[in-house]
Every structure is written in structure tokens, then in C-alpha cells.
Write a structure and sequence with these properties.
This protein is mainly β. Helices cover 9% and strands 60% of the residues. The protein has one domain (5-109): Beta Barrel (OB fold (Dihydrolipoamide Acetyltransferase, E2P)). The chain has one helix spanning 53-62; strands at 5-19, 22-36, 42-52, 68-77, 84-93, 101-103, 108-109.
Length: 110
């Protein structure tokens, strides 16, 4: 079995998150469903994603509201709340003029 999540969407919010002894950045990502509702509208889901360490610094520096990205990550269930958080491990920038992807280890893929 494998814990894997892949999302593509538009960044709604980027903000610092404070976690003890670890740099973290929070991303709110809006993802449009690939089909229309009966009234003709697309439904948009919003997901909260957290990235850590080097990836957190890079995301904070380069992402802004409206950026289009793809996120590869994993679900991180909470023992104390009835929700699952998404931990981003790989961010691919889909904007023109921004090439490549950044991994958690800081290596840039092109």
C-alpha cells in the first residue's frame, strides 16, 4: 500500500505556519472538479497543504495568490481531530516563465 496524493490547482493563500523547530508554509489550493453540476457550474474544492523545511522557504518565496501548481504529497491523519492534512513533498510550478519542480530535499527537477 502507498499513501500518495496528487493535486493540481490555483493557489488561494500562502502563509507561514509555526511548528516547533521546523519551518513550515501553509498553502490553500483550489481545485476545480472536471465535470459540471446540473446547473452548469463547476464545483471548486479547497485543500490545505503544509510543506516543510527547504520546500517551505522556496514556496514562500516563489508562490503567490493565483499561481498554478501541481502538488505531490501524502495524507497525514490526526489522532486528535477527525481530519486528514496533506503534506506536500514535491511542488511543480505550472506558470510560464517558472520552470521545473522543487522536492523536499531542495533539488530542482526540470
Amino acid at each position: 500500500m502507498y499513501n500518495y496524493v496528487m493535486l493540481m490547482g490555483t493557489v488561494v493563500e500562502v502563509r507561514d505556519e509555526f511548528i516547533v523547530n521546523q519551518k513550515a508554509t501553509h498553502i490553500k489550493l483550489a481545485c476545480r472538479r472536471p465535470f459540471r453540476e446540473r446547473d452548469g457550474r463547476f464545483v471548486v474544492d479547497e485543500f490545505d497543504i503544509t510543506v516543510y523545511d527547504y520546500l517551505a522557504e522556496t514556496v514562500k518565496e516563489h508562490l503567490k495568490e493565483g499561481s498554478r501548481i501541481s502538488v505531490k504529497g501524502r495524507l497525514n491523519p490526526s489522532n486528535y481531530q477527525s481530519l486528514c492534512k496533506i503534506v506536500g513533498e514535491h511542488i511543480f510550478f505550472m506558470e510560464e516563465g517558472v520552470a521545473g519542480a522543487i522536492n523536499t530535499d531542495g533539488k530542482k527537477d526540470c
